[in-house]
Each structure stands twice: as structure tokens, then as C-alpha cells.
Fold each of these.
Amino acid sequence: MIQCEGLVKIFKSSDVEVVALQGLNLTVNQGEMMAIIGNSGSGKSTLLNILGGLDRPTAGTAVVGDWDLLKMTDAQLVEYKRHTVGFIWQNNGRNLLPYLTALENVETPMILGGKRDRAYAMQLLEWVGLKDRMHNKLHQLSGGEQQRVAIAISLSNRPKILLADEPTGSVDSETCDTIMNIFRKMNKELGVTIVIVTHDLTLAGKVDRIVAIRDGLTSTEFVKRNPNLDDEQGLSEAGAPDVHEAFVIIDRAGRLQVPKEYLEALSIDSRATLEFDGERIVITPPR
Ligand SMILES: Nc1ncnc2c1ncn2[C@@H]1O[C@H](COP(=O)(O)OP(=O)(O)OP(=O)(O)O)[C@@H](O)[C@H]1O
């Protein structure tokens, strides 16, 4: 469904260049519900904005379904945003119109897309648990309820992919659980592929797979040991997802990212010795 290879994004201003993504590889399968984690500044939002068609990549490959995000015309990009992807932000003010009711908010993108479907809009609001509040104006709803309206809006044009940037960032833990359960339901019942960007490891137990981004590159992948297990705890004391198996990502050229702390512990700077003993590959400082 999503295929990124060697994806590069450089932000240029008058005198500085920031390399936000420096050759990132990522594959997301159809029907997956996965998360992208990483520290602040690691490139998560940049990646999501590219996948959502809000920003253009500088180089590399980014293919979503039948769309090549590097080659699309502006008109195709509008089409793509309207019908292929749904987007949810942490700050849901970007998705919502305060003077309209919840129902009217969900219908708005349908009208812009050329086809209002009231029955489906009502169904979506029912799915996110707002059946009784759909005729309330937005300002009469709580922050968590508004976030649920935002989820319904993001699904209003029946997108194949849902992209969520810190969707639980500004809600309490109970609302966070509710939102993650709604995502899971949408994923299972509508078959929507879901990509969630977060720096919150507590979401880890609720997704099938987590890809960690470090310095604009995918570094580690955590895959759920039992995909049918939705582990409420999902975390060890150290904060690492213990229901997931961790893998380092190796790109096609055989490159992998070694965590900085490992390199520092062994005082490895720009060179290392690599040995293969028949079973293991051992990296040591140069003699
Ligand atoms: N429009 C922009 N112009 C210049 N630099 C940018 C722009 N957007 C992002 N960057 C830079 O690109 C890098 C990656 O930013 P990005 O917002 O993708 O990180 P992030 O992982 O989403 O961080 P956070 O969790 O804080 O949102 C950062 O160094 C950031 O300062």
C-alpha cells in the first residue's frame, strides 16, 4: 500500500538547509495498523505530510497505492487528498468548523468531494460513539469528542489510508484508549490501512507493528508476536514494547543504523571492524 525507498526531504530557507529525511525506507501493507515513533525532530511529521500529499518529497521513491507522490501533478494531488487519504491532526481545530454541528462537519468534505451521503455520515458518528451528539455544534463538545468527530471526518470520503499525527496527544488516557479502539474497529471493519505518528510508547501495544525513526531514517522495527493479542499493558518497565519483537532495519544496500549509545560505549567513531563467525556478525572498534 505504501512504499518509500531512499526518501529524502530537504527544507531550504535563505541560508540554511535542513535534511529532515535522509533516505528513509518504509513499507506499509494494505490493512495494517501501524505506528511510527521517534524523538522530536526525527522526521515523523515530515514523513506523514509527504504521505498525506501536504508536502512534496525532494528525492527518492514514495508510492501509495497506484500513486507516485514524486511524479503527481497538482491536480492529481488534489484528487489523491480527496479520495485516497484521510488525515487527523493532534490539533483538531484544523479539521473542524466550530459553527457547524458534528453531522454538518462530517458532511462538509463529502460536499466538497461532490457527493453528500447523510446516512454514511450518521453511521460514522455512531461508530465513533457520538450518535446522541451529532446535532450539537462543535463548541458544545469536549476536546475528546471533537477528536472523535475529526476521526469521522477523516473517514467521510472513504479513504483507503488513514494518517494520524499524534492523534492522542492532547487527550487523557481514557479518551486515548477510546480513540485507539475506534481506530482498531475502523481498521477491522472498513479495512482502512492506518498509520499513526506518535512519541507515546504506551500506544505500542495497540498496533501490529511499530517503526522507529531516528535522524530521518528508519532504524528499528517492532513486530507484534501475536497479532491477535491487543495487550492493554503492552509495555515493560523500561518502556519498551514487550509484546513486540525488535528488529533492526537493513536497507537494500545492506546498511543498518547502529544506536549511538552502542557506538559511544565502544568509542566507535567513523570506522569499525566487522567479523562474521559463521553465526553472528560482530562489530568492534578498529584495533
Ligand atoms: N517547514 C520546515 N522548514 C524547515 N525545517 C523544517 C520544516 N519542517 C520540519 N523541519 C525540520 O525537519 C526536521 C524534522 O521535523 P519533523 O517535524 O518532521 O519532526 P518530528 O519527528 O515530527 O518532530 P515532533 O515530534 O517534534 O513533531 C526538524 O529538524 C525540523 O526542524
Amino acid sequence: MSFHVYDTTLRDGAQQEGMNLSVADKLAIAPYLDELGVGFIEGGWPGAVPKDTDFFARAARELTLKNAVLAAFGATRKVGTRAEDDPQVFALLHSGAPVVTLVAKSDIRHVERALRTTAEENLAMITDTVRFLVSEGRRVVVDAEHFFDGYRFDPAYSRSAVEAALAAGAEVVALCDTNGGMLPHWVSDIVTEIRDAVGDGPVLGMHAHNDTGCAVANTLAAVDAGCSHVQGTVNGYGERTGNADLVTVVANLELKGGRSLLAGEGLGDASRIAHAISEITNISPYARQPYVGASAFAHKAGLHASAIKVDPDLYQHIDPTLVGNDMRMLVSDMAGRASIELKGKELGFDLSGQAEVLTRITSRVKEAEANGYTYDAADASFELLLVEEMVGERPRYFDVESWRTIVERTGHRGVVATAEATVKLNAGGERHVSTGEGNGPVNALDQALRLALTRVYPQIETFELIDFKVRILDQEHGTDAITRVLIETTDGQRSWSTVGVGPNLLEASWEALTDSAIYGLVHAGVEPR
Ligand SMILES: CC(=O)SCCNC(=O)CCNC(=O)[C@H](O)C(C)(C)COP(=O)(O)OP(=O)(O)OC[C@H]1O[C@@H](n2cnc3c(N)ncnc32)[C@H](O)[C@@H]1OP(=O)(O)O
Ligand SMILES: CC(=O)C(=O)O
């Protein structure tokens, strides 16, 4: 029996709070899902959501899918009507999607209280709608809504809803944990019972929500108990706490279960695809997401690093490249010499056999972190520290003579604050004095530093500060607190992060800004002058 991987990012994923996908967004996401290799892409609810009606119309003209087919989602016919007369059912048919997925009530309490109809009429609504769509040449999936809650309350009725869908010609019945309240052993027991009731032939599926934090586990339990169709969303998007994260489900089934489920690029590109989709949804990727998160294979503890140096498998559940991710070493006060050696290697420095240098760098990192620095979020500053310890000094692009900054407030009621900074430094054999203006003192300092350096190092014009984070440390000391600044800079091709610590915001920012300039120049291949 073939296995279905069914993606509902564009329908149930879009039900996530704060997510608002345009038709163009959906048309941009669908090819990524196809590239990943899912078998079905549920595009939305045509006839209910105008954007979704447009999506299916445009998809028919604009999308060429290699691996997936489109599924249009909608409901069974309304109470007391005929399926062929129901405009909502008609819209599903006219979406042009080869697959129609119908949400059908399978919990008697919902039938009586939400639909306000009888048990028999709901079964007739399922039967009629499935039959009609099948007779029109559609493949039909039935999402049995609230199936598990319903089954725990009245198993016979929930079973009869599944049986009605199958008898009418549904290709798949997906059992839905709509409220997301199930636990894996409940899912296991119920799927086993329903599989026994319907026999081996019909395709049963699982649609899980993550309200107990068990959506992936529940999906795996359902597969173990006889489901061969899994629904989910990329990045676990969805209503409330989300849907089962489809990449995690598939990675578990393929990499731990030895199955082969995805067509196309498959899991090897999963990290890139998951991140590309989060760019389109405009929802920051979750670093600790299993398999594809930026931290999924990041190692901080020194003891882990010392074993990883011998064999990465000792501290990793899989090889990260299997899902297109990378192993990373994090340098912090928890680092040991092995962490520094591996981080050095990651940055292109061979420190093997240099026990003394490794010890020096490790001690310096621990001391600096005790004083407020944080290198696991500032690789570029760590690299400069490493170079300094390896060769005795950091690249000397400039010598700072002095810097100062002032903030000026003008106007009376509509107060306007502007800042000005002056930087004096020596570079390229000359003294440079530059003044910069900005909407705040750090911005003004950044401008003044660039102006002073541009004359000697024009490459610096491409550098742009893209993120700035300030944290006050040791707050119990009140005004004696130290300030930590982390900045992220880009040259349009890559970005890097630096850290500065000082008794105030300006000193901390100055350190992070100068580290950033030096690191950027080194990586632009510029020689100090
Ligand atoms: C579990 C899930 O996530 S299912 C997906 C849910 N997705 C959405 O709801 C997004 C899109 N929804 C919509 O645009 C709207 O809610 C619509 C167009 C579907 C319905 O809107 P309205 O016509 O204004 O109806 P309203 O939302 O007030 O009520 C829904 C109606 O569908 C009925 N209904 C609910 N589920 C089903 C079902 N499975 N089969 C048939 N009818 C159903 C309800 O009984 C109610 O009927 P009534 O109008 O006779 O009272
Ligand atoms: C169909 C669906 O999205 C659910 O039951 O959760």
C-alpha cells in the first residue's frame, strides 16, 4: 500500500494566529512543498475564502507540480440540501483540484449541538457529498473532524461516520484530533480498533494538532497502528499550538523507520525549504525546531565537543546533512579545549596539536564571558579573539585616537532629538577626523566610523548594521550595571555578529562596531594599510 504525505500548510497552517498568506504567497510556497516531495498540497477552501478561490484558478494556470497534486478543502453539504445544489460543494468541484478533502462531523455531540441535526442526516451528508464528488471524477479525502474525542464518547457513531465515507467512495479517511487533546497511547488504541473494524484495505490517515505537545508523537502512533496517510504542515504552523510538523513526522518515519516517503529533493533539502517557507510566511524560524532548526545540531557543552571530536555520532541522533542542516559548535563559558578546536576548524583555523593556544583561548573566553561577553551569539568577535591569540594581535586596520558623541534636543513641545559623533583615527598613514549624524548616538558613531574609514577602505560602504541588541547585566547594581551590545552587520552577501561590553551603552557599542568593521574588512580580503 502506498503511503501518503499530505501537506496542509496553505490551509490549516494558514489558520495560525498572525499568519496572512496572499495568493502570491501561496503560489510561492506550493513549489517548495512540491520540491520537498509531498504527495498532496491542500491549497485552501475555495468558495469560502475568496483568496483561496483565486489561488486554485491561478494555480491551474501558473503552477507546474512535479510530485504533488492539489487538494481543495471544504465541508460536506449543508443540512437538508442536495450536494449537487450546494454552492459550497459546487465551488470545490469547480476549483479544478483533482482531490477534494471534505471536513465531516464524526462526533455525535458536534452533530447534535453544532450542526443541530440528526445522526442519520449527518451520515447522509457525508454519503451524498462523497458520492457526488466521486461521480464527478474527484479523488475524495474525508477529514473526520473530532474523530478521537467523538470515539471516546460514542465509538459506534464515530465508526459509522468513517464507514459511511468509505462506503461512498472516499479514497482516504483522515482521523482528526481536531482539539489536539490526545495522547499517543489513546491514539494507538483507537486507531487499532478502527483498523480492525474497517479491515486492511481502506486508507486511514492522521491529522493531529499539537495542544498536548504530542502532534508528532500521535501521528507516529497512528502510523504504527495502521494509518498510511499523514497530514501536517511545514514548521508546524496551524491553529492554536499548531499542526503536526510534517518535516519532523517524515524525518522520523524515513530516518528512524527506514521508509522512503518523499519524492523530489526529499529530506536532504528540508532545512533550506523550511527556512525559505518561513521567509514567505514572515514568521521567524524557530531555532530549536527538530531536524531543521538552527540549533538542532548546535553544541555548547565542552564535554559534548570532546566526544564529537572523536566522532560526531556520539552526540548526535542523526547526521545533520541528511536533513540539509549543519553541525555547529558554540563557544561560551561552557567550552573546553575541544570546543575551541572544533569551532576553530568550522571557522577555517587548524588548531589541532596547539595545546597551549587552545588553553589560552579557552581561559580567555571563560574570563570574558564571566565579564559579560557572549560568544555563542557573536562568532565574528570570537574569530578576532582567536586570531589575536594565534598570531599575537588582531589585524590593525586603524588606530583610534578618540571618539565622542553628543545628543541634541531641539524644539519645545515637538521635541526632536538628533545625535552627532566625532571619530579621530589613523589609517593608511594619515589622520582622519570625521563627524557623523544619526537619529541616536550609536547610529551617529556608526556613521562617523564609516566616514573615517571609507577614504582608506572603500569596501566598508557596503557594510550595513542590520540588528542591534542591548542587554543590561547585573541589574542589582543599578547605575553600575554593565551593558552588553550585540550587533549584526551585512555586506549584502553574508552577515556577521559581534559583541561589545562596557560600563555604558556607548562604550559597549563602540567595541561591537569596531569588531564588526575589522571582521568585515578581513573577510572582504582587504589588507591593513
Ligand atoms: C477543523 C477545521 O479547522 S475545519 C476548517 C475551518 N476553516 C474555516 O472555517 C475557514 C473558512 N470558513 C469560512 O469562510 C466560513 O466559516 C464559512 C464560509 C465556511 C461558513 O460561513 P457562514 O456561512 O457564515 O456560516 P457560519 O460560519 O456561521 O457557520 C458554519 C455553517 O457550516 C455548518 N457546518 C459546520 N461544519 C460542517 C460540516 N462538516 N459539514 C456541513 N456543514 C457544516 C454549520 O452547522 C453552520 O451551518 P448554518 O449556517 O446552517 O448554521
Ligand atoms: C480538519 C481539521 O483541520 C481538523 O479537524 O483539525
Amino acid sequence: MLTRKTSLTDKQAKNGTSKYVLERCASINEYYDIAFKVMLLGDSAVGKTCILVRFKDGAFLGGNFIATVGIDFRNKVVDVDNLKVKMQIWDTAGQERFRSVTHAYYRDAQALLLVYDITSKPSFDNIRAWLTEIHEFAQKDVVIMLLGNKSDMAAERVVKTEDGEKLAKEYGVPFMETSAKTGVNVELAFLAIAKELKHRATQQPNEPKFKMHDYIESRKHKSGCCSHG
Ligand SMILES: Nc1nc2c(ncn2[C@@H]2O[C@H](COP(=O)(O)OP(=O)(O)OP(=O)(O)O)[C@@H](O)[C@H]2O)c(=O)[nH]1
């Protein structure tokens, strides 16, 4: 594999407009300009692995639930404004007994997707505890997004969309409901994160700021309406 590392631009490096180093990596399978680490967090069985598989392979992992043991990651390269952005996505085990393993990875992550299950009230109630943990272990400027997964299970819903929105507003984080089963909003969640991180890394002083919240609100599929895009 041929790997070459370059800084963003000499100017950016000099005036410190970006703290991320651009990596230009060429190999048979993978070419990218810039790389970020993203983590999926949330209680066991909320659908973190399924969200990752849906985004990476466009498929749904139905059937028997197999809990993640420890931590695992998958890479996906997406195009953002003519740059190849590699997202290294870490899938963590939601079970309590693996918590000390996953804590060690928080500090490296630039973005966290915090997931609950709309059919599980405890998974929603635990979001506050997850946020406390994030504030303890993650970087101060980490990008956080709240996802209410399994939006396809309308009949079993116990957490209202408004409650998710309210909680997200309280913590100042973007929010959307997803379905790893149908794919609703899954790609949008990762693309919004990729765009936000790319803009933070390459932002020029005179460039308008990327507004992640507006980007999501103008594109997200709202539960109970329309067809899946
Ligand atoms: N209907 C429906 N089922 C889902 C969805 N996402 C996940 N599931 C199911 O929920 C169960 C748990 O999914 P996982 O992705 O393994 O959950 P997890 O959060 O990774 O769990 P841990 O690895 O224990 O942390 C599985 O049986 C999935 O098939 C969804 O969007 N809709």
C-alpha cells in the first residue's frame, strides 16, 4: 500500500485553521483525502450494528440478535465537496460489562452517534447517562448526534418523536429518527457528520459556516410522512 501524508495547505497549517491533518492514501481498495473517527454509542440492542451495516453495505441484518462483543470498526469513504472523506466507524458493545473497553476509544473520536430505540423507553431514559459519560470521556468539541432508531416499528413505538426532539434541543445536538431496516435517514446521519467534520477541518476564515442542523432539517424524512428517500 502506498501512503502519503500531506498537510491541508501550507497556509492552513501555518495559521492553524485546521487541527486535522489531511491524509492522502492510495491503495487498490481505498483512496481518501481526509479521515475521521466516528463512534456509535447506546444501549444494547438499539440497532447500532444494523445502522453501521445499513450505511456500509446497504443491507439489513435481520434475524437473531447477536450482541457486539467489545468493539469493532468498518471504513467507508464518502464524497464531500470533491474531497474523499474516510469515515472509520467504531461499533461499540452496548452491554454494561464492555463499558470500560469502549471508554478507552472515546477520546480518539471526532463524532459520536448516540442511539436509542423508539420501542424501548429504558434505552431513551439512558441517553442522559450516555451524555454524562460522553462529557467525561470524549473530546470537548466532539460532534454529537442523537438517533431514535427502529422508526419502522410504528405500532410498538413508546418514545414520541417530540420527546427525542426535546431532549436533543436541551443538549444542543441534532436529532433524527432512523430505521436500519428500511434505511430511512441512515445515510443522511453519516453524511451530515462527514460534512460537518470536513468543514471544520478545511474551513477558511472567509468561508460561510456549515449549518449541520439546517442541512439535516431540510433533508430528513419525518416519521409518519412521505415515502422513504
Ligand atoms: N425493526 C427493526 N429492527 C431493528 C432495527 N435496527 C436493529 N434492529 C434489530 O434489533 C436487534 C438489535 O440490533 P443490533 O444492531 O445488533 O443492536 P446493537 O445496538 O448493535 O446491540 P449491541 O451490540 O448489544 O450493543 C436485532 O435483532 C436487529 O435485527 C430497525 O431499524 N428496525
